[in-house]
């Protein structure tokens, strides 16, 4: 069973992110541009972006579009094949790269009990 258009778009963008065409923080093509490129509606492109957002690869920025996250979260696909549920066969999430973890400020005084 062939992939649906939104799945094809999501897979194409995922591959382009993985290959380094879009790096962390980069803005992805607009929904309008992708809709013209793939000859689909903007709703189909938004559905593809939703797939990537749910997978932890992109984040939506109000008024700016979709950007690649700084530390993408990857989930091994397991034995997922065309025609199966997106959730079936997947493994647990894992972080790619080292996330920045800010150190909380030290308190200047102790709490009294």
TrEMBL record:
InterPro entries in the record: Bact_HTH_transcr_reg (IPR050679), Tscrpt_reg_HTH_GntR (IPR000524), WH-like_DNA-bd_sf (IPR036388), WH_DNA-bd_sf (IPR036390)
Keyword terms: DNA-binding, Transcription, Transcription regulation
PROSITE patterns membership: HTH_GNTR
Gene Ontology molecular function terms on file: DNA binding; DNA-binding transcription factor activity
Pfam families: GntR
Disordered as annotated region, ranges: 76-113
Top-rank lineage group of the source organism: Bacteria
Domain HTH gntR-type: 3-71
Gene Ontology terms: biological process: negative regulation of DNA-templated transcription
Protein name: HTH gntR-type domain-containing protein
Organism: Streptomyces echinoruber
Phylogenetic lineage: Bacteria, Bacillati, Actinomycetota, Actinomycetes, Kitasatosporales
